[in-house]
């Protein structure tokens, strides 16, 4: 599927194409066929013109009507000048997520994605990213975690309806584990490693919740949203204190 996607993208982008790379669980070795997305980034030589963006949209929407793996594609088309360093005021870029295609700026999480891309260099096709992405330090990672808490997780606690979506409660629990790991150690970790660390360092009352989250499949949820929300509040407080 990735080889097919690569050929489609190269055909549409032509001279704008620089490379296609993987991040997320495929790059960190934490991929699970039951639940993982296929996270990708396409680096372009410059900002893409409207006609090309429309062709990409048509292509991705057509693919989303196909296999489950094509619907799991999640990523963005990022110019070389943008991927080099994170800019919270950056422009909107072509973005793919859960079968949708839209224009959106890169959020704080792309500090982490850039770190994974540069350190793991999981290339489908293209030059080394070490020459395209500046090093990402510990304080940048910690700032990114707090930015995601402010813009994503805190609003979700105010309106927890998103936690009712299939699979979202386990995702939230494991994401909290990763956030706490990064705040305490200044580095990234896979969900599995972060969950083990959380179980070893957090009060035992949370162990069963974290263990359940590690076993989740794509449609599973934890029985109690209140329990998930309480865990999120606890971890967010710890992150802010770190």
Compact description:
With 242 residues, this protein is of the alpha+beta class. The chain has helices at 2-13, 25-28, 50-64, 68-71, 80-83, 109-120, 138-158, 168-185, 191-201, 207-214, 225-241, and strands at 17-22, 38-44, 73-79, 93-97, 100-104, 122-125.
Can you offer a commentary on this structure?
The chain is of the alpha+beta class and 242 residues long. It folds into two domains: 2-131, 2-Layer Sandwich (Beta Polymerase, domain 2); 138-241, no CATH class. It has helices at residues 2-13, 25-28, 50-64, 68-71, 80-83, 109-120, 138-158, 168-185, 191-201, 207-214, 225-241; strands at 17-22, 38-44, 73-79, 93-97, 100-104, 122-125. It has a six-stranded mixed beta sheet with strand order 5-4-3-2-1-6. Helix 8 packs across helix 10 (207-214). The longest helix has 21 residues, at 138-158. The radius of gyration is 18 Å and the shape is globular. The chain starts with a helix and ends with a helix.
Structural topology:
Elements: H1 2-13, E1 17-22, H2 25-28, E2 38-44, H3 50-64, H4 68-71, E3 73-79, H5 80-83, E4 93-97, E5 100-104, H6 109-120, E6 122-125, H7 138-158, H8 168-185, H9 191-201, H10 207-214, H11 225-241
Parallel strand pairs: 2-3
Antiparallel strand pairs: 1-2, 1-6, 3-4, 4-5
